[in-house]
Design a protein that fits this description.
two-stranded antiparallel sheet
């Protein structure tokens, strides 16, 4: 939003005592005190120009709307339009003030006609900047233990400043369990209010985890704190245990840039850096959105629900791009593939042979390695080896896979897990509808009926012939049924 407005304390307090201002703040969705300070600056700016108090604006608006004269009814709109065209402020500042005043009227239940007042057009081109690892290294020089932890956490988690200030020790329990990268799970109440219903599953890289440990140790040794699960991670330097606010995070970033002698960044620029690193590491778009706390894209939403361990492995691939102190260890992709396959075999009671045969449906040329009689690694395809059924398979037989073969396994496993998720969701839906899978005739309490899963091109034909629509299973198939006489 820009820098914090400088307002006289007595003037701010005076405006906060107006009933209409209190109504406004009670009605707006934001809980950010930082945003409310800008709202307050905007209403003071406008009221000073108009020569009226906030309460007078609403009282006059109420009287104007009772008038039969259309011009009188539009007095508030004309006044705001006159201010919008005054040229007293920059286009960006005027755009924000007009929006604030419209919000003020709306939350006092005397809304301004939206189309009647338009703010000046703002410049469309904005230079979005992303800090590099070199920029962050420079910013860390001379930073206190706390500020160093804040900068690295912003850079390696991609959290908004509004979420960062709410982090507590309960969110980073894995930090004390030696389980890098450290998982941080946030629910909608810990994200911005407008993102209700969402959640974020991001991670602390090794740099940020180490910085937080050092900072927490300092608080124990110097501040003599006794932390609990509910203790805030980032606290004020002048008040033991009290959390910092959004302005403090912005100030930390600003001062670090000034000290480093580089162009100023915002906390949100760090968020862009995190997302860029994730995307450039080949992580799927929906998984990136899950880590960043964004809404999942429509069609993929039901079928893109990765487990925490999958997200952890994905983040680990991107961590080297976000490491600013030392190169993070490279992920052993082969061991990750073996671990995923072992988990599937254990959970489904499937042999390695059968699992690889299943994976070949997605990657027909999938290869494996076994030892021949002389102990030399030999690559072969399951489909073409007749003597395979007599050979005792071990997961270690994957150890000699080449890079391209590992990539093939990764693709096959992702496709397999996605298909399993679809089947699981389909079964849950069938259960919720009281239908038994693989049965064509069932009883629903009112009589027998027949159900079918049909393709999109067949749906109209079935509906026209008396079948009824039950559910959309995915973007291509539908569940229909009809009652039997």
């Amino acid at each position: 939003m820009g820098r914090q407005p400088s307002l006289n304390k007595e003037l701010r307090q005076k405006y906060l005592e107006y009933k209409t201002v209190r109504n406004w703040f009670n009605g707006v969705a934001t809980t950010s005190e930082y945003t409310k300070k800008f709202y307050l600056a905007d209403i003071i700016e406008y009221c000073t120009w108009a020569g009226k108090t906030p309460d007078q604006l609403i009282q006059e608006r109420k009287a104007q709307l009772r008038s039969r004269d259309q011009d009188a009814k539009m007095t508030a709109e004309n006044l705001l339009r006159q201010y919008a065209n005054s040229g007293l402020k920059s286009a960006n500042r005027m755009w924000r003030i007009i929006g604030s005043i419209k919000s003020f009227y709306k939350n006092n239940f005397f809304e301004i006609t939206p189309a009647a007042v338009r703010a000046p057009k703002r410049p469309k081109v904005k230079d979005y900047r992303i800090p590099t690892t070199d920029d962050v290294r420079k910013m860390l020089e001379g930073s206190s233990l706390r500020d160093r932890a804040i900068l690295l956490t912003l850079y390696q988690t991609g959290l908004r400043e509004s979420s960062l200030i709410q982090l507590k020790l309960k969110h980073i329990k894995e930090l004390f369990e030696g389980k890098p990268p450290v998982h941080i799970g946030l629910r909608n109440q810990e994200l911005k209010g407008i993102y209700a219903g969402l959640e974020a599953h991001t991670f602390l890289g090794r740099d940020a985890a180490d910085a937080i440990k050092r900072y927490l140790d300092w608080r124990k040794d110097v501040k003599h704190e006794t932390p609990t699960d509910e203790s805030f991670i980032f606290t004020r330097l002048d008040a033991v245990g009290q959390p910092v606010n959004e302005m403090a995070i912005i100030w930390v970033v600003k001062e670090a840039c000034k000290r480093a002698g580089i162009q100023a960044f915002s906390p949100h620029d760090f968020r862009r850096a995190t997302q860029t690193a994730l995307e450039s590491s080949g992580i799927s778009g929906n998984w990136v959105r899950k880590i960043m706390g964004h809404a999942l894209s429509g069609e993929e939403n039901p079928y893109s629900q990765p487990k925490i361990e999958q997200l952890r492995e994905a983040y680990a691939r991107a961590e080297p791009k976000l490491s600013v102190t030392a190169a993070a260890p490279q992920v052993d992709r082969l061991q990750t593939v073996k671990k995923r396959m072992m988990t599937i075999c254990e959970e489904t009671s499937t042999s390695l042979e059968d699992l690889v045969a299943e994976l070949q449906k997605y990657e027909p040329d999938l290869a494996m390695v076994r030892m021949n009689s002389s102990g030399k690694p030999v690559a072969f395809k399951f489909a073409s080896e007749r003597d395979l059924r007599d050979y005792e398979q071990h997961f270690n037989s994957l150890d000699e896979l080449e890079e391209k073969q590992i990539e093939a396994y990764e693709r096959a496993l992702s496709a397999y897990e996605r298909q399993q998720l679809k089947e699981s969701l389909k079964e849950e839906l069938m259960k919720e509808l009281g239908l038994e899978k693989r049965k064509k005739t069932m009883t629903n309490g009112n009589g027998h009926y027949e159900s079918k899963i049909v393709k999109e091109m067949e749906l109209t034909k079935y509906l026209d012939s008396g079948w009824e629509f039950v559910a959309n299973l995915n973007h291509e198939k539908f569940l229909v049924r009809r009652f039997l006489c």
